[in-house]
Amino acid sequence: MISLNWAYAQAEPSFPLVSNIAAVWNLSAQPCNGDIGSMMDRSPDQAKIQKEKVLSFPSTGFNIRVFQHPDITNSYLKIFLSDRSRGVVDNYFLISSEDLSPPVAAIVLTELPSQFDNSDKVFSAVETLEGRLSGDAPKFEKIKGPYGDALQMITLNRLSSQCFPTAKFLIGSDPEDRTIGISRFVFTQGRLVEFSLILRLKREINDESARVYASHIMDGFWKSFFLKY
User: Fold this and answer.
1) CATH architecture of the region 4-227
2) 146 cis-preceded (ω within 30 degrees of 0)
3) 186 exposed, middle or buried (CB, 10 Å; 0-12, 13-18, 19+)?
4) Other CB atoms closer than 10 Å to residue 217's CB: what's the count?
5) How many CB atoms lie within 10 A of CB 148?
6) Roughly how many angstroms between the first and final C-alpha of the chain, as a whole number?
7) Which residues partner with 62 through β-bridges?
């Protein structure tokens, strides 16, 4: 039986769908040094995805309605499946502003070892890993959402990178070019799902208002992910 948490999968989305998908790329690797061009092949499903604005993670039952990032006019989608570089199986859906630009939106679907069988164990592992990646002690908040319990992390001045969101954090220091990173982690259908965004901020916005803004945008983004049988 499918949980009622997934009922919206059959309804009209309550978040802005992408206005223009410029390209859809399949990645064979996600190099962190930025040399990504040789790792990209045009998706044979590009025309279908551009028309329907939906893509699928094969064999999982999970699908994504492509979200309109507020800072992007033309969206470049990147799909990287079955990556084992972290010792688990990661499947990435990424949105960039250009073919070779680092992603500013990501959904990462991770197949975990069998001992991670409940959200407490998974969230504890997430907090440990994100602490190592940030080089600091990021603040986490437990929240409720369409997938049940979730863990939220907001990082002021976080920047993107080619390996975003599963690489070491980059933190900006330019007051004229402010950003904020927000991530939410859920454990659903036996998998860890990470939703992450990098958002540009107006110079005059204060930190608390920035957090509220990021949460509002994320509220739409994580509803783009749904089950379909």
Assistant:
1) 3-Layer(aba) Sandwich (3.40)
2) no
3) buried
4) 19
5) 12
6) 11
7) 227
Cα 169 from Cα 151, distance rounded (Å): 18
Q: What is the pLDDT of residue 206?
A: 95
Q: Give me the pLDDT at residue 58, please.
A: 72
Backbone φ, ψ for residue 226 (5° rounding): -150, 160
Tokens 């010792």 belong to residue:
87
Which residues touch 84 (CB under 8 Å, ≥6 apart)? 90
pLDDT at site 227: 66
C-alpha neighbours within 13 Å on the C-beta side of residue 187? 18
Handedness of CA 36, 42, 45, 49 (dihedral sign): positive
The alpha carbon of residue 180 and the mean position of all alpha carbons in its chain are separated, in whole angstroms, by 14
- Of the candidates 37, 16, 10, the one whose C-alpha atom is nearest the C-alpha of residue 25 is 37
Q: Tell me the average confidence (pLDDT) per consecutive run of 10 residues in the chain, 229 residues long.
A: 34 73 94 78 96 85 91 96 92 95 95 92 95 88 92 96 93 92 94 96 94 95 78
* Residue with tokens 């504890």, as numbered in its chain: 124
The first and second tokens of residue 167, run together, are 């690489």
The predicted model scores a pTM of 0.91
Distance of CA 6 to the CA centre of its chain: 18
- Do the beta carbons of residue 221 and residue 197 sit within 8 Å? yes
DSSP single-letter state for residue 18:
P
In this structure, which amino acid lies at residue 92?
Y
Token pair 């975003």 is found at: 164
Residue the block writes with tokens 């998998």: 191
DSSP labels for 131-151? Answer: HHHHTS---EEEEEETTEEEE
